[in-house]
UniProtKB/TrEMBL annotation:
Domain SAP: 172-206
InterPro entries tied to this protein: SAP_dom, SAP_dom_sf
Pfam families in alphabetical order: SAP
Compositional bias annotation for Basic and acidic residues: 23-78
SUPFAM superfamilies in the cross-refs: SAP domain
Basic residues bias spans: 1-12
Spans annotated as Disordered: 1-105, 141-162
Protein name: SAP domain-containing protein
Length: 209
């Protein structure tokens, strides 16, 4: 049998139905095929739009249409058996008893006292070290002072001996009486007498040096 000019859906060679049940089954298969084709076209359009909310509605529409077709029993979906509760965020909260709380507080108090004792001991040790250091510094300072005093006395003695030079007989004979008296004063000698007495006294002193 030749097809018509316009090849519409459902045209062409058809199967002859033998009974009313076969007719019903055939109509049901055709309806499901048409519905699936339309749904695929709608899904393609929704995917192009990229809408997340539209995708959810599309899924619900697909489910409702599939249930309304011959594949479902026509009953509405019943309520959920259990309500999902949101899970708490973060780590789980640990609940301690009163006895555990007392034990923890006792441990903290023990640690605090031990730290206080260690700190007090450290301060005492620092004070002792400081006192020793101060004592050593004082001893070094005293020793240095004594050394300086000894050096100063020696320098003074040397200075005094250097100030008074030794005179020769010729130098004494050439001196005038006033110069002789000054020389005798420097040497802590008597300045009484005439020139000859002064000269003799000074020559004897210089000869004994």
């Amino acid at each position: 049998m030749a097809r018509g000019k316009f090849n519409k859906r459902g045209g062409g060679k058809r199967l002859d139905a033998q009974s009313a049940d076969e007719i019903e089954q055939r109509n049901q298969r055709l309806a499901e095929f048409e519905e699936n084709r339309v749904q695929r076209r709608i899904d393609a359009e929704e995917e192009e739009k990229g809408g997340a909310d539209d995708g959810g509605e599309k899924k619900e529409n697909h489910t409702s249409k599939k249930d309304s077709s011959g594949g479902g029993d026509g009953k509405e979906p019943g309520p959920k058996s259990a309500v999902e509760t949101p899970k708490p965020e973060g780590p789980p909260v640990v609940v301690t008893s009163a006895e555990d709380h007392k034990k923890n507080m006792a441990k903290l108090e023990f640690v605090r006292r031990r730290r206080e004792k260690a700190e007090a001991r450290r301060l005492v040790e620092e004070e002792i070290e400081l006192a020793k250091e101060m004592e050593q510094k004082a001893m070094f300072s005293q020793a240095a002072k004594e050394v300086n005093d000894d050096d100063g006395g020696k320098k003074k003695k040397k200075g005094k001996s250097k100030e008074i030079d030794k005179l020769t007989k010729i130098e004494i004979k050439k001196m005038k009486p006033a110069v002789m008296k000054d020389a005798l004063k420097e040497r802590k000698l008597d300045i009484q007498g005439n020139k000859n007495v002064l000269m003799t006294r000074l020559i004897e002193y210089e000869g004994s040096r």
